[in-house]
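Action item from last meeting closed. Structure (357 res):
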């Protein structure tokens, strides 16, 4: 059931699959005769120099996957010179995760417990030094993830007789996972809202759906947070312009990895419209469907300044904790380096549409 939670999307998974398929339809225009001696993957994101254009997307409840979870991911991000964004639904508190690495971290904001709850999260993120708030706008109602329905799982989950009966057999078939999960204290709750451990408590203290954020909230966060504000979940030029108007510093073109509106466009297809609409006024990143290094080059050639991955690093985490996340990051960046050599382009910052057919 944890695998399905990570691997699955909403509805018929059309958007999730379209994200991946869109990359296959983009063809490079390689140049010969000037083979690069070396490749630079360095980029600047919101004024910060990174050694890799591959960032880690915010993913909820990572403690159900492996105990290294978010803390492991921020450690890897620091080691690799990149950034991890931490979900409001993190399995340890945002303070606990902040202490795991001194490098820049971003905090993804859901309105857990409405505006008052969001206010307190923003203050806490400010107090422990998160560099940006990533406001996710595509999650105003819970989307039906049919694999979760089939597994009869609702996150977060209370440990009681029903859940033991329901998940006991499948957990016993995964003894290593079960052992790690029990040892980690069964992190199924919403750690950022300590009171919320059961479903009804989550409804009372931590529902993100009672007052989902809108454009005016971007301005509201701006006034309360001294770092940067990034808006996640944008798919159209109209919304991109709106995000710029209300003062966002950056936009993530995202459809939540095909986990919210099924039928939303593949992010790679939506990216050029967003890039054109903002006209360089704010930075544009993208996520969704990146599974190879060449995908990163294609997204950057279509105007993304950086990209995020979600599921790929969660798969690495599931296999081997921190080490698995490192392996996934290194595999994708090694593939990107190879792509750059074969393209004849020595610097990811030079990628633009002239490198595409
Ligand atoms: C298991 C899982 C949990 C996620 N939880 C969140 C979340 O809490 N907040 C959020 O903004 N996005 C969340 N996302 C979406 C990711 O941030 C990202 O947009 C998406 O995974 C990118 O697509 P990819 O998985 O194809 O790389 C989640 C994705 C997955 C797979």
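Sequence:
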């Amino acid at each position: 059931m944890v695998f399905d939670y990570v691997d699955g999307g909403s509805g018929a998974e059309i958007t999730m699959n379209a994200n991946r398929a869109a990359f296959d339809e983009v063809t490079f225009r390689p140049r010969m005769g000037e083979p690069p001696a070396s490749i630079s993957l360095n980029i600047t994101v919101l004024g910060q120099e990174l050694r890799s254009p591959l960032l880690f997307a915010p993913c909820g409840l990572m403690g159900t996957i492996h105990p290294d979870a978010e803390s492991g991911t921020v450690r890897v991000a620091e080691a690799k010179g990149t950034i991890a964004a931490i979900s409001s639904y993190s399995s340890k508190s945002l303070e606990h995760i902040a202490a795991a690495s001194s490098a820049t971290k971003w905090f993804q904001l859901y309105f857990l417990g409405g505006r008052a709850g969001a206010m307190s999260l923003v203050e806490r993120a400010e107090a422990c030094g998160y560099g940006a708030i990533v406001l996710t706008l595509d999650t105003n109602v819970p989307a039906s993830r049919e694999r979760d329905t089939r597994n009869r799982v609702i996150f977060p989950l209370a440990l009681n007789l029903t859940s033991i009966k329901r998940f006991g057999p499948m957990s016993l078939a995964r003894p290593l996972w079960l052992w790690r999960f029990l040892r980690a204290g069964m992190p199924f709750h919403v750690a950022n809202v300590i009171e919320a451990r059961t479903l009804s408590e989550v409804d009372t203290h931590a529902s993100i759906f009672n007052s989902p954020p809108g454009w005016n909230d971007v301005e509201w966060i701006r006034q309360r947070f001294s770092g940067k504000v990034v808006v996640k979940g944008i798919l159209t030029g109209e919304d991109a312009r709106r995000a710029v108007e209300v003062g966002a510093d950056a936009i993530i073109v995202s459809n939540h990895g095909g986990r919210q509106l099924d039928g939303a466009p593949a992010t790679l297809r939506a990216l050029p419209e967003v890039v054109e609409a903002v006209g360089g006024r704010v930075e544009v990143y993208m996520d969704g469907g990146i599974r190879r290094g060449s995908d990163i080059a294609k997204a950057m050639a279509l105007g993304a300044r950086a990209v995020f991955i979600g599921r790929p690093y969660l798969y690495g985490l599931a296999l081997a904790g921190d080490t698995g996340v490192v392996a996934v990051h290194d595999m994708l960046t090694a593939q990107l380096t190879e792509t750059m050599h074969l393209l004849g382009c020595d610097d990811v910052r030079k990628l633009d549409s002239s490198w595409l057919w």
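Note appended to the action item: Residues 311-343 form the longest helix (33 residues).
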